[in-house]
């Protein structure tokens, strides 16, 4: 065989290899066995869980109507924004399968962002088994928010009809952003729930449609259902449900929830608006904006018995409202009194909450266990130390480093001159 024949054979071999390499991926990437058309999917945007007898669970699916809120709404102007169906089954996945005996489309959890748990079920010991078994489904994301409703979850979902949002998934998405802005409720999802199952307290969002209004001077000292409200959406979300070892054991108010978030070394919310009693004239309250410019400093001394915890928190204050018209902007003594009053009140309320967690909950939601765990070389050493038990007797000192940054745009509040009586 001459050189030209050998060279031609080599070229043909290279061409065959190139074709083979190009064709092989098609056998793995061109399969359509698992394809799913959009028209065949039913997207669940909210999931409700309620307690029943015999360890069964009542699962409520809120399925979005894709035609509402889109350009195709003209074709179906009278259709509801979602369909709500409830099934009783051993767990979430079996209820999902059972739902397809009624729902013509295949249920999909790809857009699920909110799980509502009825308070009765949240306090049951086997609620963790239900949540843990649902993670087997790859569509169940760990970023899904956990909301505990005072009433049954099925009733909560049916009564939740926001006036400004026709699409239910948008309502929960916008509310999640408001939760971060106000700090009235914690940022709670499945991932954080599973992280805190070893005695640490997990805070879930507390909500209800039932009203038990009670007017209070402190605007954040409410739980869901207690906020004085006239008209508007029926749902109130404020405060948190306290979980320990996977089940609910109590509740916190909006104020206690804010303090809990502040006491964590790193917090998602750094700016809150709150009011405090006027130290000069206690008939009025001063509204301020609180900012947290840095991380909370937490020092845990595990060598002493009981352990010592020192917490230092920087707080910056901007005065927004001063109804009493007291001169704080130019009067140094008044400034000192205001600063000391805010500092004393915050430290008092904080110590009150810490004492409650030690006596009632027997654990802490401030993530201080992470600081204590760093004091040990191995996990067995930390587990033998038993931080949960040691915390109940720990000596805690809290210091708020308060600094007033501004008193508004005016140099001095204008007072109303007294008029002569006619």
Keywords:
single chain; 422 residues; alpha/beta; GMP Synthetase, Chain A, domain 3; nine-stranded mixed beta sheet; five-stranded mixed beta sheet; lipoprotein; signal
Q: What report would you give on this structure?
A:
The protein is an alpha/beta fold and 422 residues long. It folds into two domains: 216 residues, no CATH class; 148 residues, GMP Synthetase, Chain A, domain 3 (2-Layer Sandwich), CATH 3.30.300.210. Helix content is 31%, strand content 26%. The protein contains twelve helices and 14 strands. Strands 1, 2, 3, 4, 5, 6, 7, 8 and 9 form a nine-stranded mixed beta sheet that branches. The termini are far apart. The model has no long low-confidence stretch (mean pLDDT 79).
